[in-house]
Design brief:
Distance between the termini: 29 Å
Shape: globular
Structural class: alpha+beta
CATH architecture of the largest domain: Sandwich
Number of domains: 2
Strand content: 15-25%
CATH superfamily of the largest domain: Regulatory protein AraC
Order of helices and strands: HEEEEEEEEEHEHHHHHHHHH
Number of strands: 10
CATH class of the largest domain: Mainly Beta
Strand order of the largest sheet: 1-2-9-4-7-10
Largest sheet: 6 strands, antiparallel
CATH topology of the largest domain: Jelly Rolls
């Protein structure tokens, strides 16, 4: 477990994992308006195992990478793999473990009377696992949830509920478009996009993306222009700057060190790109949000 986790959240996080978390309301509320209690991204090792009898909240989980299995209550053991999304009854026993490659999984815990409805409509995930082939956009929404939750700005609760609703619509969209000719191109695009999202700092050039995905450069440009509205290079830069913005708030590292982490040997070049994406310099961004 990350030793920097706030004390209020440690009791809800497995000691076997490391990850990125946010905590908004930890009272276990089951009445009132729908809310987001907590959430995060977890890196689960090969020997990861969770066994619990109950949990304070309805929980929605998404596996971004790796392999595992889960069993809720007396139900069947179901496999987990990249693209699996599921929701758990807080009053049922849960067993979840890694079975193959270490898992990267996301979760969001829901409070309020609408929590169960949020994981049954428009796509029913209640105590079951569903697999979504094109899950890059699902991961993107979870990443946005984490960023917003960690920044803790004004109206963060409402923003996270809004992102939850966006997630519901993305799940519905992924379910509807499956199997169409349009979807084949979209799935290829989402696979490329997911590779960038998983580690944007790993792409110093488009050649690395070509090698990793097997998609040639002209097709990469066509797919990103069609489905994202920007070039693949622009998307890589935006994702790098989004991660850099988070790192500037989450640590006291020098700007030049963060620049180097994202492949910029020249801190001034990094600052220019950061300003182009976010409208302010890295130093000003850090002062604005922290003050």
């Amino acid at each position: 477990m990350d030793p920097n986790l706030p004390a209020k959240g440690k009791r809800y996080i497995s000691v076997q994992t490391r990850g990125d978390y946010f905590f908004l309301e930890l009272g276990g509320r089951r009445t009132g308006a729908l809310g987001v209690a907590m959430g995060g991204r977890e890196y689960c090792p090969a020997d990861y195992l969770v066994q619990r009898q109950s949990f304070p909240w309805v929980t929605l989980e998404y596996v971004a990478a790796g392999e595992g299995e889960v069993r809720v209550g007396d139900g069947p053991v179901e496999p987990l793999r990249a693209g699996t999304v599921s929701a758990y009854d807080p009053d049922q026993p849960l067993q979840l473990r890694t079975t193959g490659a270490p898992m990267t999984k996301y979760f969001v815990a829901l409070s309020g009377e609408g929590a169960r409805q949020a994981v049954t409509q428009p796509v029913n995930l209640w105590c079951t696992c569903r697999h979504f082939g094109g899950h890059g956009e699902i991961r993107e929404v979870f990443d946005m949830l984490i960023r917003e939750g960690q920044e803790g700005m004004a109206n963060v609760g409402e923003i996270c509920v809004n992102l939850l609703q966006r997630l519901q619509l993305k799940l519905q969209q992924a379910q509807i478009v499956r199997g169409t000719a349009h979807d084949q191109s979209r799935q290829r695009f989402l696979r490329c996009k997911a590779a960038i999202d998983a580690n944007p700092s790993g792409f110093a050039s488009l050649e690395r993306l070509v090698v990793e995905t097997g998609v040639n450069r002209p097709l990469l440009y066509s797919l990103f222009r069609r489905f994202q509205g920007v070039s693949p290079y622009q998307y890589i830069m935006r994702q790098k700057m989004n991660r850099a913005a988070h790192d500037l708030l989450a640590s006291n590292a020098r700007v030049q060190d963060i620049a180097a982490e994202f492949g910029f040997a020249d801190p001034l070049h990094f600052s220019r790109v950061f300003r182009k994406v976010h409208g302010v310099s890295p130093a000003k961004w850090r002062r604005m949000v922290r003050d």
